[in-house]
Amino acid sequence: MSVQERLQAQADRIESVLETHAIPARVSGGTVTPRWTRFHVLPVNGASIACLRDLGDELAEALDTTSCRIARRGAALEVEVARDDAEPVRLSQLYALLTEGRATLPPLTSILGMDDTGGPLLIRLPSPDVTHVLIAGEKGAGKSQLLQTMVLSLALTNPAPSKLRPGTSGLRLVLIDLTGETFDAFHGLPHLAREVVTSAAEAEEALESLVLLVGRLTLAEQPPVVVAIDGLARLLEAGGKPVCRTLSRLTQRSWETGVHVVAATDRMECRLSGGQAVRLLDHFGFPARLVGRVSTSGDAFAATGWRSSGAEHLSGRGDFLAVAEGRLMRFQAAHVSRSELDDVVARLGARCAPWLQPEILQPQALPGGRP
After folding, report:
1. Distances (CA, A) of 294 to 88, 93, 115
2. What fold is seen in the domain 3-82?
3. Bridge partners, 278 (sequence order)
4. What CATH code would you report for 91-361?
5. Residue pLDDT, tens place only, 242-286
């Protein structure tokens, strides 16, 4: 069966379910992406099709899939099913497309993946509507992969600060991951302001150093810094109130001095030592959010701030919603393999010798004598 024949058969099955329930609507078209197919369902003669939301299980059975996602778009509803022949969205392909003809991206612009129209989706960290980004979702949602993609794309499109002209241009990265796995391939990247952080004590020192940097410098005097954190809730629980307090100061004061935080978490709330509960969005803000699959509609609302966002129906493995500038947008996160990571980091490292960072970002003693 050809692709066109399969799509027509699926549209016919959707309309058959609608007819069974006497719902006056028809499939008017759709969108095909590398991961899923979305059918646009329009009401006939202005009829309401709100009841279609309750037919998810029946539609999934008719379409011979485990589940389907139903979302409203204007006066229509969209029925979305995963493709049997799904293909990954590759960062290398999007990067080549965006830089064709030696075009360059705006500074501090990260590639996220492919939007629901099939085009590249970007996010610009210096935008006042972005500044800091929270990546949320349960295990298997693709958070760590998206974080890797964002960091690598920033390194590809923003030069490391030159050893000959410190502070005049480029990007510095501070990578924090207590598991030691997400950023292990980034050792040797010339953009690193310090070695990859893998302990709560070192994370506290690194964040405190950045708070001091924010208090002393301006964006014009130093290259911007992006702090990437995997496992934010875990870090806060391990580091306790000192790390929580320091990170809060950093996210509240850093925009004008060019420090941006991109953090991933599988929980929207954590409990510090002593029993203090911390709601991440209430405590740190994060104007922009990238939300993968979550377990319940309550978790979806907590992560997106939108009712009926449908985040609980996402398929996982890089299927995300972007929430920024008062908009909600679906996208498939770009994928980068370990071999690609190793290759790009090696090429960037060979092209640009690591810049000697200022003392403020090097490991130092905190008050009280802790290393």
Report:
1. 21, 28, 20
2. Threonyl-tRNA Synthetase; Chain A, domain 2 (3.30.980)
3. 270
4. 3.40.50.300
5. 999 999 988 887 666 789 999 999 999 998 987 888 889 888 989
